[in-house]
Amino acid sequence: MSLSNKDILHAVLNNDASEETKLQFHYIEKATGYVDELKKELGRTPTACVVTFGCQMNARDSEKLMGILAKIGYEIVESEDADFVIYNTCTVRDNADQRVFGRLGYLSGIKKKKPHMKIALCGCMMQEESSIEKIKKSYRHVDLIFGTHNIFKFAELLCTVFESDRMIIDIWKDTDKIVEDLPIIRKYPFKSGINIMFGCNNFCTYCIVPYVRGRERSRSPKDIIREIEYLASDGVKEIMLLGQNVNSYGKGLPEDEAMSFAELLSEVCKVDGIKRVRFMTSHPKDLSDDLIKVIAENEKVARHIHLPLQSGSDEILKKMNRHYTKESYLKLVDKIKAQIPDVSITTDIIVGFPGETDSDVDETIDVVKKAQFDNAFTFIYSKRTGTPAASMEQVPESVSKPNFDRLLKVVQETAKERASRFTGRVENVLVEEINEHDPSLLTGRMSNNTLVHFPGDSSLIGEFVSVKLLECHGFYYTGEKI
Length: 482
Ligand code: 5AD
Ligand code: SF4
Fold this sequence. Notes:
Shape: globular
Mean pLDDT: 93
Oligomer: single chain
Radius of gyration: 23 Å
Bound molecules: 5'-deoxyadenosine, iron/sulfur cluster
Number of helices: 13
Strand order of the largest sheet: 3-2-4-5-6-7
């Protein structure tokens, strides 16, 4: 990926920027000097690669990292054979941790041949002490480690790396700071994620997120709208409002800024130039009637709700601390479908939570059949140290694996049947890219998030196009432009 200055958002310091933002711009300038020196030394522009693990929040954080790296003079590349490599990590399940360690081992070989290379780690995994200990002991070739709460200090930390040969570690336990207006590079010019809140207060008993992302904090509606207006003026047509639990947006805002998520969504839709608004993720316990009404009445809001179920067994839901039952979940799904007929509902499900029996999984399968999800992401429970579920009695793989397979089969069958209901219709598709496998095709997304492939050329990328859906292939359609 090669980037021009035009792609660097918010790179010019606003007059009303916070003291912290101003300070970080000072470090950006300083780091630019260090990168200039490196450029002279190497006789070429140094390269940087940002590798993202995990969720949409991490993807957005990576855009912030890339913004800083590009601003101080690095060329952003996709190869890990770069002069600066940073892994933005995830720790929601153990396999994400293992992938990072595996790739760090591989980087050690590259760094031996390229001593000026710098390696950095950030993101959720770095908020866990055990990860830091392991890196200090076995991955001495890492130059910089920071966490989720001080990502805004990236430029400052980079300066320290350039000034020192030691491994720099800066992890904060929590923060109430929200630092705005630092450089950002978007992966797509026409669509963007936007954080509306950070952290999570729900403490589902299996989940590490509240420990590594900290307490819930909502951004001021004024700042959110200002950022979206800026994005719209820069060519963004679709935005995704991001938070661990967007339905609880607004708690803790000062009285004069008080706003619910439904109200925010409705305000966001009023921004000129924004044609489609998505949001992620909704907790079923907090999804309000007002929100359903705003979605139903507002064409701009995407016909897609991601509504993590986690389990269909009341007993397991209770042990998970989810605050809803199988019945109330199904009622909510019915209500959403009745009021927003074209909506797609997708979900997340965990199999193998402590104490889960075959009959608990039968309950989950029953919900899958009744709710008719358009897609469900299924995960085998992963024990996360420090969470309440880690000290409950664990389920052996000999029980969880067959249950997982059983569930997956039903999920795939129902999703396939459900997805095909749009065949023959004409849908508004936002074209995202040339198809990976067949360059004569374009790939885009319908309002309900389903992928569509159809013949066309690259001039349509970033445009909304009317596409007739000819054939459903499980999770995607093929079609033709009309
Ligand atoms: N094990 C397995 N899956 C998990 N998730 C969160 N924590 C765990 C865990 N410990 C899943 C949930 C969540 C999704 C993002 O990841 O289903 O909705
Ligand atoms: Fe984790 Fe539950 Fe918070 Fe989602 S709502 S991030 S699953 S604790």
